[in-house]
Design brief:
Elements lengths: L4 H12 L5 E3 L10 E2 H16 L5 H10 L7 H7 L9 H24 L15 H7 L29 H28 L1 H8 L6 H18 L4 H16 L6 E5 L6 H16 L3 E6 L2 H15 L4 E4 L9 H16 L4 E5 H8 L4 H4 L8 E6 L9 H14 L3 E6 L20 E2 L4 H8 L2 E9 L1 H9 L3 E5 L3 H9 L7 E4 L5 H16 L4 E5 L13 E5 L3 H8 L12 E8 L6 H16 L8 H14 L7 H4 L12 H7 L8 E4 L4 H11 L5 H7 L3 E4 L1 H9 L3 E4 L3 E4 L5 E2 L3 E2 L15
Parallel strand pairs: 3-8, 3-9, 4-6, 4-7, 5-6, 7-8, 10-15, 11-13, 11-14, 12-13, 14-15
Antiparallel strand pairs: 1-2, 16-17, 18-19, 20-21
C-alpha cells in the first residue's frame, strides 16, 4: 500500500479508472447491471457531505464517504462478488489510509470507516481494537483507493473543544460523523439493491414546518373558540401566549415550567414550531420518558398535523392490518431508521441511548438531530445515575450542533443548581413562562396532607370510604395486596405493568367512563398511571416517594378544576417500603425537604428545587463513569471506548423478556404466525400489545412449572392462563394452578 497522497492519487488514476471494480452485484453474471465502486463511493460521499453540512462538517462527510469502501478496489473483492469463497476486510483499508494521511483528524475518520458495518470499535492496542487492527491487519497488495485529501490543514473539527473535557466533544463528533456515513451508505445500497424500499421511503412528500405551524395555529384557534369558559382554560391561554412570545428568540436552552393540566403538550409544540420556522431549524423531536403516554401524545400530534408528518418511534407502536394504514406503517418503519420526518415522537431511552450507541442501526438517525428543536417532556425523569453524561450531551447538541432544547415539566429539575459539578451544570437556561410562581398559584387545584404510616388494611379501609379515589402505590406486590382487600367492592380496579398494554388500555377506558358517569370507581395502581394518563379523581392517595412523583400523582386529582374545593392528595408511608435503593433515597429526600421547609407548599417551586438539590447532592450522577471514559487520550492516541460505553449506557439494566399472553383468538393467530415466520419482527411488534415484561427469575419459575411454551427458544408464550388474572394481570405465584381446559390433552 502506498504511503503518500500523491501515490494514492496516481494509483487511482491508473487502476480504478482503467479496471472495473464493483460495490454491489446482481445475479447477472456479465456484470452489466452491477453497481460500480466509483459510483457508490461518489454517491455515498455526496450524501454524507450533505448530512454533515448540518453541523459544518461537509468535507469530513465527503472524505468518509470516499474512503469507506476503498478496500473494495481490489481483485479479491471482485472475486467475492462473483461467488468465490474469498474473505476481504474492506473497511480497514480506508481506515488505514485515513490514519496515515490525516494524523489526529484521520484517526477520528478511522473509527468511522472501520465501524461502518459492525459498529464503532473500541480504541486500544488489544486484539480487535482499532489501534491494533490499524497496525497489524494485512491489506491486499493490489488495493487502489481513491485520492482523498485529509491533511490536518484541510480537515479541522468544526467546533470548539470544551476545555473541561475535549475528548467528550471529539467522541461526540465522531459518532455524529459515523451517523452521516452509515445513513448515506444504507440509503445508496438500498437504492441499488432494493429500489422498491427506496421508492416507499421517498414516495411520501413531507410537509414543511411552516405548513405544520399553520395547521397547529388553526387547531388551537378552534380549541380556544369551542372551549367552555373556565379558570383553567384561561390559564392555558396564558401558557400558549407565553410560548408564542418567546419562540422568536435565538436557539439555545429553554425551560417550560407548567403544572399538570396547564396544556403544555400543545403549547410546547407551538413554541417548537414557531421557533424552528423563525430560526431555520429542520424538525421537532418530542422525547417522552413514559411509554404509557407516548401514544396519547403522538395521537394528539397526528390529529393536528396528519399521520404522514408524525413519526412514532417507540416499542408500543401498534401496526395496523387495515389496507389504508399499511402504507403509513411501511413508511414509518423506514423513517424510524433515520428519523427523516418533520415531527418525531420517541422515548427518552431511544433518544439518549442512541447518543451513546456505537451500532449503525441506532446511530443512523443522529445527524438528523442536528439543528432540531428537542422537547424533553417530563425532563425530571432523566435517570439521576446518568444525569452527568446526558446533560453534557445536551450541551453539545446546543453548543455545537445548532439545536434548541426545551426542558418541559411541572417539576423542573435543578439542572443549574450549585450541587451539580460546574463542568456539567446547564447555564443560561431561559424560562418560557413569564411568571412560573404565579402560574403555579393560579393553577393549583389540590391540597396535600400527610397521613403517616398506614398498613395495607388501614389504607384499604380509607379507600373504601370514598366513592371515587385513586391510590398509587410504590410496588406491584403492594398494588396486588391492597387491591385484594377491595376487589369485591363495586368499581374496584387494579393497574400495573403485570397487565399487558391492551388490557391496561381497556381497563383505563372503563375507569374513565365510570368517572364521567359518577359511578363508584376505586383504583389501585402502580406509578404508571401518574405519567400523564388523562384521568380526573377527586381524591388521590400516594405512597411516599420523590416530590416529582407526588406532583405527578397530584396531576390526576381535580385535573380540570371542576370541584368547588381543592382536591385531596393524601401522602402516606407504606407498611413495607420499597426495597429498591433509588426509590428509598427519593422518598427520604422528599421527607427531608418537607422537614426543612415546614411552611412551604410541598409541591411548590421552592420545595421542588430544594428536593432536586438534595437528590443531586447525594446521588451518583455518572454511575457507569461514562463521562470520565470519554475523555480519551486527546493529545496522543485518541483512545475512545465506543463499544464498551454503548454496552454500559442503558437506562434499564435488566430489560427482562416479553411474555406473550394469548387471551384470545387474535393473539393465538399471531402466535401461529410466529411459529413459521422467517422474519418475525412485524409479528413481534403486534404481540407487544399482548405481552408482559418479566424478569429472568420469574420466567424461569414459569418455565420450570411447565406454564410456558418457548417458540424458537426465544419467544415465550404463557400456556397456563390461570397465572393471568383479568383483575390483576400476571400472577407468577398462581403458576401451580391450572384451569381445567389447560389439562385436556
Amino acid at each position: 500500500m502506498a504511503d503518500s497522497g500523491d501515490e494514492h492519487a496516481s494509483g487511482h488514476d491508473n487502476t480504478l479508472k482503467n479496471a472495473r471494480y464493483y460495490a454491489h452485484s446482481t445475479p447477472n453474471p456479465d456484470k452489466s447491471d452491477w453497481q460500480g465502486l466509483d459510483a457508490h463511493l461518489e454517491n455515498v460521499a455526496n450524501l454524507a457531505a450533505t448530512f454533515a453540512e448540518a453541523f459544518g462538517a461537509r468535507e469530513w462527510g465527503k472524505a468518509a464517504g470516499l474512503l469507506h469502501d476503498a478496500g473494495k478496489a481490489t481483485a479479491q473483492f471482485t472475486q467475492r462478488l462473483e461467488g468465490r469463497p474469498v474473505r476481504v476486510n474492506h473497511s480497514i483499508c480506508g481506515a488505514r489510509l485515513a490514519q496515515e494521511q490525516g494524523s489526529t483528524c484521520g484517526l477520528l475518520l478511522s473509527y468511522v470507516i472501520a465501524g461502518h458495518h459492525g459498529g464503532l470499535p473500541d480504541g486500544g492496542l488489544q486484539e480487535g481494537q482499532l489501534h491494533h487492527r490499524l497496525k497489524h491487519e494485512r491489506l491486499p497488495a493490489d488495493v487502489s483507493p481513491p485520492p482523498v485529501d485529509i491533511r490536518p490543514d484541510v480537515l479541522k473539527p468544526p467546533f470548539t473543544k470544551r476545555p473541561e473535557n475535549p475528548g467528550f466533544s471529539l467522541s461526540f463528533f465522531t459518532r455524529m460523523l459515523f451517523s452521516c456515513l452509515t445513513d448515506a451508505d444504507f440509503l445508496d445500497t438500498e437504492a441499488f439493491c432494493t429500489p422498491e424500499r427506496a421508492s416507499a421511503r421517498n414516495g411520501r412528500p413531507a410537509t414543511g414546518l411552516v405548513a405544520l405551524r399553520d395547521a397547529l395555529n388553526t387547531h388551537l384557534d378552534t380549541v380556544e373558540r369551542d372551549a367552555a369558559p373556565s379558570r383553567v382554560n384561561d390559564i392555558r391561554k396564558t401558557v400558549l401566549h407565553d410560548c408564542r412570545a418567546r419562540a422568536s428568540e435565538t436557539p439555545g436552552l429553554f425551560s417550560l415550567t407548567v403544572p399538570t393540566g396547564g396544556g403544555k403538550t400543545l403549547s410546547s409544540m407551538a413554541f417548537a414550531l414557531d421557533h424552528a420556522v423563525t430560526n431555520g431549524l429542520r424538525r421537532v423531536i418530542y422525547a417522552i420518558p413514559f411509554t404509557s403516554i407516548i401514544e396519547q401524545n403522538a395521537k394528539v400530534f397526528s390529529d393536528v398535523f396528519g399521520q404522514d408528518n408524525v413519526l412514532e418511534h417507540h416499542c408500543n407502536y401498534r401496526s395496523k392490518d387495515e389496507p389504508e394504514e399499511q402504507g403509513y406503517d411501511k413508511w414509518r418503519g423506514l423513517a424510524a431508521e433515520n428519523w427523516d420526518a418533520p415531527v418525531v415522537v420517541t422515548t427518552n431511552v431511544q433518544f439518549f441511548e442512541s447518543l451513546f450507541s456505537n451500532r449503525p442501526s441506532r446511530c443512523r438517525k443522529l445527524h438528523n438531530i442536528a439543528r432540531s428543536v428537542i422537547v424533553l417532556d417530563e425532563a425530571q425523569a432523566i435517570p439521576t445515575e446518568y444525569l452527568e453524561p446526558c446533560l453534557y450531551a445536551l450541551k453539545e447538541l446546543v453548543g455545537q450542533y445548532g439545536c434548541t432544547v426545551v426542558l418541559c415539566t411541572a417539576t423542573q429539575p435543578a439542572v443549574d443548581d450549585a450541587s451539580l459539578p460546574e463542568r456539567v451544570r446547564l447555564h443560561h437556561v431561559r424560562e418560557i413562562i413569564a411568571d412560573p410562581q404565579r402560574l403555579y398559584t393560579d393553577l393549583k387545584r389540590t391540597e396535600v396532607t400527610l397521613a403517616g404510616r398506614l398498613t395495607d388494611a388501614a389504607l384499604a379501609a380509607r379507600l373504601d370510604g370514598h366513592e371515587q379515589v385513586l391510590c398509587i402505590v410504590g410496588t406491584k406486590p403492594q398494588a396486588q395486596a391492597v387491591f385484594s382487600l377491595l376487589h369485591e367492592r363495586e368499581g374496584a380496579f387494579h393497574l400495573s405493568t403485570n397487565m399487558y398494554p391492551e388490557h391496561r388500555r381497556r381497563v383505563l377506558g372503563t375507569i374513565r367512563q365510570r368517572l364521567a358517569d359518577r359511578l363508584p370507581c376505586r383504583v389501585v395502581s402502580t406509578s404508571l398511571i401518574e405519567a400523564g394518563v388523562d384521568v380526573d379523581f377527586p381524591v388521590v392517595y400516594r405512597a411516599m416517594a420523590g416530590l416529582d412523583s407526588i406532583a405527578q400523582a397530584a396531576g390526576r386529582c381535580n385535573r380540570e378544576g371542576r370541584l368547588p374545593e381543592p382536591g385531596q392528595v393524601v401522602v402516606y408511608e407504606p407498611e413495607k417500603p420499597p426495597r429498591m435503593p433509588w426509590m428509598q433515597r427519593c422518598a427520604s429526600r422528599a421527607q427531608e425537604t418537607l422537614r426543612t421547609l415546614p411552611e412551604a407548599d410541598p409541591l411548590g417551586l421552592e420545595a421542588i428545587r430544594r428536593y432536586f438539590g438534595l437528590i443531586y447532592d447525594v446521588q451518583e450522577l455518572d454511575r457507569k463513569d461514562i463521562f470520565k471514559r470519554l475523555r480519551g487520550q486527546v493529545d496522543r492516541d485518541m483512545v475512545f471506548k465506543f463499544r464498551e460505553i454503548a454496552h454500559d449506557f442503558r437506562f434499564i439494566d435488566d430489560e427482562g423478556t416479553a411474555l406473550v399472553i394469548p387471551t384470545g383468538p387474535e393473539v393465538e393467530d399471531l402466535v401461529r404466525r410466529l411459529r413459521g415466520c422467517e422474519f418475525p419482527r412485524p409479528v413481534l411488534r403486534k404481540l407487544q400489545q399482548y405481552s408482559v415484561t418479566v424478569r429472568h427469575r420469574e420466567l424461569e419459575k414459569l418455565r420450570s412449572a411447565g406454564a410456558v411454551e418457548m417458540i424458537g427458544d426465544a419467544y415465550p408464550v404463557l400456556r397456563n392462563l390461570a397465572a393471568y388474572s383479568e383483575d390483576m394481570g400476571l400472577c407468577v405465584d398462581s403458576v401451580e394452578v391450572w384451569q381445567p381446559e389447560g389439562l385436556v390433552s
